[in-house]
Design brief:
Distance between the termini: 11 Å
Number of strands: 0
Membrane topology: Multi-pass membrane protein
Number of helices: 7
InterPro entries: Cell_shape_determining_MreD (IPR007227), MreD_proteobac (IPR026034)
Keywords: Cell inner membrane, Cell membrane, Cell shape, Membrane, Transmembrane, Transmembrane helix
Protein name: Rod shape-determining protein MreD
Strand content: under 5%
Pfam families: MreD
Structural class: mainly alpha
Length: 162
């Protein structure tokens, strides 16, 4: 019963991240939209690494590609790299204070942007504007709130199940 509830919470947070990724914003605010799917996958990679593997990260990336109409495999590649790095350094990242985790998340999201630039270069797309780099900073600022929200939901689920 507990495993099923945790699975539904896991799935609900990923669906919410996909919906937030699809949420329309005015053109002026669009560069400030954080990469919600990456932030949620970072959380689950840190807290329950058995639920997230490279295969699942790839599948969620493909779902993100299809939902946003991106180049098929773009987000999948970026999310696999992101989850690999988080899983590799999980033992250290998990015990950082939240402000250090936020800096690590900034590094992960900047790495995601660099991979995105590489994919764009290989596909022949033009270089993005400077505002392309705003979203990782917003993601870093959103990280403590996302972490605390999902962690609180998990804690409430554990208390409810006990």
């Amino acid at each position: 019963m507990i495993r099923r509830a945790h699975f539904w919470l896991f799935l609900a947070t990923l669906v919410a991240a996909c919906l937030l990724q699809l949420a329309p914003l005015p053109a002026l605010l669009l560069p400030f939209k954080p990469y919600w799917l990456a932030l949620v996958l970072i959380y689950w990679s840190l807290e329950e690494p058995d639920n997230i593997g490279l295969g699942r990260a790839f599948l969620f990336g493909l779902v993100g590609d299809v939902l946003q109409g991106d180049l098929l495999g773009d987000q999948a590649l970026r999310l696999v790299a992101l989850v690999f790095i988080v899983l590799r350094f999980r033992a250290r990242l998990r015990f950082f204070p939240i402000w250090q985790q936020s800096l690590a998340v900034l590094g992960l999201l900047l790495n995601d942007r660099v991979l995105s630039l590489m994919v764009r270069a290989f596909s022949g797309a033009p270089l993005p504007p400077l505002s392309f780099w705003y979203a990782p900073v917003i993601g870093m600022l959103a990280w403590p709130w996302i972490f605390l929200l999902i962690d609180d939901l998990r804690a409430r689920l554990r208390v409810h199940e006990a």
